[in-house]
Every structure is written in C-alpha cells, then in structure tokens.
Amino acid sequence: MRYLGIDYGEKRIGVALSDENGRMAFPHGVIANLGLTKTIKKIMKICRDNNVGKIIIGRSLNYQGESNPIMEEIEKFKRELEEKVGLPVDYENETLTTVEAGRALKGERARPPIQSQRKPTEKYFKMRRKIDASAAALILKAYLERAKK
User: Fold this and answer.
1) Buried-exposed string 129-147: b where 16+ CB fall within 10 A, e elsewhere
2) Distance between CA 88 and CA 83 in Å, rounded?
3) Burial 91-116, CB ≥16 within 10 A → b, else e
4) What is the span of the domain harbouring residue 105?
C-alpha cells in the first residue's frame, strides 16, 4: 500500500509519497492552499494517480505537547479529507520537521543570517517549496518507521 504524507500550512501544503511497499518516503511536491475545496480536489487526484491507501497529516504541537493554533484548521482539513477522499487519515507529530528539512537542503549556517531589506527572490520561493515537500516526507517517514514496530 502506498501512503501520502501532508505538511499542512496556511499558504502551502507539502506532499510526499511512499514507495509501493510503504517503506520509504519521498518528497512529491507542493500544493498552494487555496481553500478546502480546491486543495482537496488536488489531493484526490494525487491519491487516484498514485494508488494511495492511507493519508498521514502532520500534527502541529508546541514543545509542551499542546496543540498549536493551526491545529483547528488541520483538524477541519482532516475531517474533510476523510469525508471527500474516502481514505483513512492519521496524524504524526511534525515538530521541527520544517527546520530539519531546511537544514538538509541548505546545510548548516556558520553564522546567524543577516536581516535583509530586499524582497525574496525566485530562488527563495523554490527553496521554500522544496522544504515543504521534504518536511512532508519526514512526517511520512516517521509514521512509516513507527508503524513497522
């Protein structure tokens, strides 16, 4: 069975897919969050095209293990996904996955970043998309590793 991993964000939603055996997770892409209806249609298409059997969404918790404010949106998104897509949807803790994905793609910084007054470049936006998809893959990887046990 193939799994779909989701890193939900207010602007972008990172998406990852597992291999057909459900052992490894790979970044798939990013969907612009343009509202529930449009976003769920895109996810339905990904699920159909890739024979997905289960969806995993990142649970946004703070360092004390309490829900972050975005969890209300994520819970609503999860309910709609289950209803419209018709697949089981589980949570996996997403704490620090975006930070970890960013470090893997950009590497460690030798010094703190300097605050810039310049507008973000296209390179910056491409990197953000890669980070969101990679964070979804990390969420999915954690779920798959936990499910093996």
Assistant:
1) ebbbbbbbbbbbbbbbeee
2) 9
3) bbebbebbeebbeeeeeeeeeeeeee
4) 2-148
**Residue 25 carries which DSSP code?**
E
**pLDDT tens string for the chain (149 positions)?**
999 999 998 999 999 999 999 999 999 999 999 999 999 999 999 999 999 999 999 988 777 778 888 899 999 999 999 999 999 999 988 765 655 555 555 555 545 555 656 666 666 566 666 778 888 898 999 999 888 76
**pTM for this entry:** 0.82
Q: How many domains does the chain have?
A: 1
CATH number of domain containing 17? 3.30.420.140
